Amino acid sequence: MQLVNRLIRKEEQALQQLMDVYGNYLMRTAFLLVKDHQLAEELVQDTFIIACDKISQLHDETKLKSWLTSIVLNQCRSKMRKWSWKHIFLRHQTDDWKQEIDKMGNPEEQLLQEFGNQQLSQAIQQLEYVYREAIILYL
Question: How many structural domains does the chain have?
């Protein structure tokens, strides 16, 4: 409970450690759900603000990651519920979150793997939000 206790005491270094440990994970999760890099950054920032404000409600540090995940999911759901959000067409930004290609394979295998990853990503992004969320959380 050391990190949680430090966050309760509002230590800046504890907040920095929290962001270092969970920032990339939350950013990836938010990006895959909302399909917009800048919006995902905003939602993750909001998640950390909410977490700092309500950290005293968390009593088991082992559940910190799942607690943060539920906060970012709620932020994404809230944003997706808004009418104006549903009618905005966002561009698909796969370049920000491509998986690393296995360097051991030959160029043809790398190209085929890249193509397969893009096709899978596009197929997931075309799903309704509820189904997309379930698949992303499973991964």
Answer: 1
